[in-house]
Every structure is written in C-alpha cells, then in structure tokens.
Amino acid sequence: MISEGLMQKLSVTGLCDDSRRVKPGNLFFSIPAEGYEAFARSAIAAGAVAVVGETMAPEGLTSKWIQVPDVKAARLEAAKIFYKDPFSKLICHAITGTNGKTTSAFLMNAMLEAEGRKTALLGTIKNKIGDKSVPASLTTPGLLDLYEFASRAVAEGCTDLVMEASSHSLHQGRVAGIRFRSGLFSNLTQDHLDYHKTMDAYFEAKKLLFTKYLAENGVAVINIDDAHGEKLFNALDCRKVAVSRLGKAKADVKPFGEIKSTEDGLEFTLPMIATDKFETPLCGDFNVDNLLLVLAWAHALCVPEDAMRKAITTVRVPGRFEKVWSKDGKHVIVDYAHTPDALERVLNVARSLCRGKLSTVFGCGGDRDKTKRPIMGGIAERIADKAWLTSDNPRTEKPADIIADVRAGMTTDKFEVVENREEAINRACAELKSGDWLVIAGKGHEDYQIIGKTKHHFDDREIAVKAMTDAEA
C-alpha cells in the first residue's frame, strides 16, 4: 500500500493523522470518521503532500489522494518505513492493569538502569529517554507519536523501552507493530466504563497485550490475587509467572512469613528470588503487589539482585502515596487514587498507620464514568473519620452535580462539601492534630485542574505544603 519509493517520490518529511498538527511535507492519514473530508482538506491546506484514505478521493483532491483498503494498516506500514522500524531495535516491556501501572513502570525502569542499561520510559507521569524527561499527555501516545518516540530512543542509544499500556491504546491498536518481550498485569477494577461499557469488554482490551502483542518468546507476569488476573493466567499458553501476595498455592512468587508494614516502608522475604529480605521506603499492601510483580518480572529476565535492591530503595513516584508533609505527628499524603479500588486501598493503608483521626479530600472527574462516584463516596465514609467532598477535574460538568453523585453513596454526615478544591485542602489541613493523617486523593502528580475545557495550574502538593507551613507559622 505504502512503499519507501512512494514516500521518497512525494518527499515526505513527516507523518500525521491529526489535521490540527499537520506541517508542510507531511503525509496525512485520514482515519474514517465523521467529518473526514473536512479534515483532509484542512491537512492539504496546511501543506500535506498527500492524503491516505479508504474512500474515493473527494472532489478537487484527486491528485493528492492515495486510496487504500485499510488506512490504519497503511499508517503502520508508513511508520515502520519512515522511522526505520525502531521497535525491532528495542527490547520492549509493558504493564497493563487499572492500578499500579505507573509505580511498576518506574520500578521496572529503575531496575534496568541499575543493571547498566539505557532506557526509555513511557507513562502517565512522564516520558523519558535516558536522562531527558518530557511531560506526558496520554498514558500511551498515538501510534505515530509512539513510533517517533521510539525512533528518538534508538538514536539516543537506548536498549530497552518500558511503557504503560492503557486499555484504550490496546483496544485502538496504538501499539500495533510492537512485540513485547514481557507483559505484566497488575489488576482490573472499575474504571473507564464510559468507554468500554462493561467490565468484560474492559478485560478483553487489557488481555490483548498478552494475546496479540506479546512476542513468541515473551514472558507474562500476572497478579493472580486479582480475579481477572487469575482468569488471564489460566487462559494464556505462553511462558508465564504467577504472583500472589496472599500466598496462593500455584503462585511462582509469593512472600514467606510476615510482611512488615510501617510508615517508614516495607520489609518482606521472597525465597524464590533471594535469601535476604527486601526493604523499601514504599508503603502499603498495594505497593507490595507492585513490588512482587516487578521483582518476579526482573527475576524472570535475569536482572541481577543488586539492581533489584537498588531500585526498590531509591525509586520515588510523584503523586503515588506521596508524603508531602510529616511533622509533629501530622501526615499529609497525596495520591492519584481516582477509582473505587484505589481509593479504598490508599485509605486502608493510611488507616492502618494512623494513630489519630483519618480524613480525606477527594472528588471525581467530570465527563467520565459516573457509576463509580457513589461507590467512592461510600468507601470514604466507611474508612475515613471525615471526608471533604470537592472538585477534581470537573471539565464540562457542574461540580455540584458531581458531588451530588458522590453523596448518593453516603448515609451519614461524616463529610463536608467544599466545592473549591484549594479551600477544601486548606480547611482539611487546618483541622489536623498530632497523630492525624490526611489523604488528598484523585489528582496525584497532576499540576493542573480542568474547568470547562481550560487547564488551570493547580497542584495538590503545593497547596497542602503551603497550608501546613502557614499553619506552623
């Protein structure tokens, strides 16, 4: 469909599938959708040398139109040619699941770096090539951005790529053309049902990492404490490793004896991997899950033990149970928890460490899955002593409507409604006494708040630190 000779003849200088981003010399791919003709004309007006589409050429575009039977297949073919098939030159690793992807990806990347490898990282918080970091806008970029990123990683001398694979990217084929050396599955809990509609469809999207994109000699590392993880493990016919914090009999990697958990971190023993116990400043049972998964992965790939230990003691993940204030017995945690399961697990960990009262500030995102809102309200009410219900990223919904959905799952008056998020954080911080813990949930690493369709600078961590500092003055 698309050949190197054709691209040379057209003097293609870049590839694009978003008419708003077209630059002169680009080859534009017209993905079938409503309004495709207008997008194609816009691309030509912006300087595209040609448009690749599945339909007959619209009037006036015949000389600039390349008709193909499958535009997405043509786009993949062109990406491999233009970017010189970069994924064939990288060892690629991916993790999927609802929660834990970012922390696990950071750990994987840190272990490979500790082994002496030059890595690239793609994820929710940031994209990184070697030591160069750039902000990330999507958990998994679009296919053309992904190929461009991989091409840069190869040019910079990277040997490995670690990435978070979102359900959207797997379902939409954004990782097409990649064969992953390893795939990890953390868990599956309610999220993104505005897109997938059902949990079964959500699971089938995640499953694609292992059934469609894992290399023939690839290894799957799966948390079988999760019901969907166990289902996935049983269904796969490949090299696979089962991981269980709960000590399930068929697990290949599971802790031996007590898991020591304090506000200073975790200690546990994995006799399948090492004789001496592992120690890390990461907190909580959810991080035990992340650590077991990644340590099992590293062991399967023969990463040296000293590299594993160095990574788990030094890695820091912004906005993931991040302790932003700890003084005079008062503790303030900022976490990205924005699903029912994540909120419940974060609050349970804080509850287990708290010697005083536990409070939480949280909201739910607008224009997203509404069914989880009352569930999260019920969880906060059950675990915390007090909840401050506020705005998250309301987007185009009214904050009061979102908060009303959250309140629908609550049956007591253990909450206050403060629509303005900064005010809610300030008031929650002002109430803290020695021994108390505050969990500010939902936005984590984000340094913005989306109101309407506009992004405004807003960082939970900055607001909390200022509030606590002012309280100390």
At a glance:
It is an enzyme of class 6 (ligase). The chain has helices at 4-9, 36-45, 71-82, 101-114, 143-155, 167-171, 193-196, 199-211, 227-235, 285-300, 305-314, 340-353, 372-383, 399-407, 421-430, 460-472, and strands at 14-16, 26-29, 50-53, 65-67, 91-96, 119-122, 126-129, 132-135, 160-164, 180-185, 214-223, 239-243, 256-262, 265-269, 278-280, 322-327, 330-335, 358-362, 386-389, 415-417, 437-441, 448-451, 454-457. Helix 4 (101-114) packs across helix 10 (285-300) and helix 12 (340-353) runs parallel beside helix 13 (372-383).
Integer-rounded radius of gyration? 24 Å
CATH fold assignment of the largest domain: UDP-N-acetylmuramoyl-L-alanine:D-glutamate ligase
Approximately how much helix is present in the residues? 25-40%
Distance between the termini: 68 Å
Average of the residue pLDDT scores: 95
The rough form would be described as globular
Provide the spatial order of strands within the biggest beta sheet.
8-7-6-9-5-10-11-12
Quick one: CATH superfamily of the largest domain?
Answer: Mur-like, catalytic domain
Strand element count: 23
- Judged by helices, strands and strand pairing, the structural class is alpha/beta
- Give the domain tally: 3
The number of helical elements comes to 16
Give the biggest beta sheet: 8 strands, mixed
Question: Which stretches are poorly predicted, pLDDT < 50 over at least 5 residues?
Answer: none
Reading off the top of the CATH hierarchy, the class of the largest domain is best stated as Alpha Beta
Strand content: 15-25%
Architecture of the largest domain, CATH level 2? Answer: 3-Layer(aba) Sandwich
Family: Belongs to the MurCDEF family. MurE subfamily.
Binding site for meso-2,6-diaminopimelate: 368, 392-395, 442, 446
Keywords: ATP-binding, Cell cycle, Cell division, Cell shape, Cell wall biogenesis/degradation, Cytoplasm, Ligase, Magnesium, Nucleotide-binding, Peptidoglycan synthesis
Cofactor: Mg(2+)
